[in-house]
Amino acid sequence: VNVVAGQSNQTTFGTWNFTSGAGEGVNLTTITVGTTAGVTGNVFKDFELWIDGAKKSQDTSTTISPTAANLTTGVAFNITGGYTVPAAQTALVEVKGKIVTGAAAGAVTLTMTASGVTGTGGTSQSSITAPTAAVNGQVITVSASGTLTVSRDSVTAVKASQIVAGSTNVVFGAYKLQTGNVEDVKVKKVTVRNIGSNTDGIA
Prior knowledge:
- The chain is mainly β.
- The protein is 0% helix and 47% strand.
- The chain contains no helices and 12 strands.
- It has strands at 2-4, 11-19, 26-35, 44-51, 54-58, 75-85, 90-99, 106-121, 127-130, 135-143, 148-152, 175-179.
- The strands form 3 sheets. Strands 1, 3, 6, 8, 9 and 10 form a 6-stranded mixed sheet that branches. Strands 2-7-4-5 form a 4-stranded antiparallel sheet, with no helix packed on it.
- It is elongated and about 90 Å long.
- Mean pLDDT is 82; it is low at 65-72.
């Protein structure tokens, strides 16, 4: 996942499959998310928990900061009324959110913490805790800003020989502007200059 710091749209930071056993369904009540060891989570804000395409819970704190020391606590999403995963079926769980403005560039990974998922059996009503070990989500690559690369366009025909005085719409140069993969870039100004010895007659 590639994301730029301070983006306004919600980004999916991690997806997990929750599969219940064949014996009975499971009613999910709490899902806890942290970060991998050694990585702070204070770059995140406005966390949301989605299950099978619908928002089920939201973290209302301004930012979160799970660290290696409190990895098992993280951020707990309480699911009002629970969510039932039928026997032998799989639910898609997603965590969405934003990266705070000014966050340093780098990589961070959310994790479904060990024993961070709680619920009850659909028939037995027995308490259920999972997973037995932390399950990492996708790697999130944070960029401080978007990028723009300018290069010469070798495809467009450029007039390189002598040009007759009075000619119009002559292509003197062609360039490509390529953005990175984290955000759009709005180009406000393009400046060109003549690096040759003759500057007469160009308009």
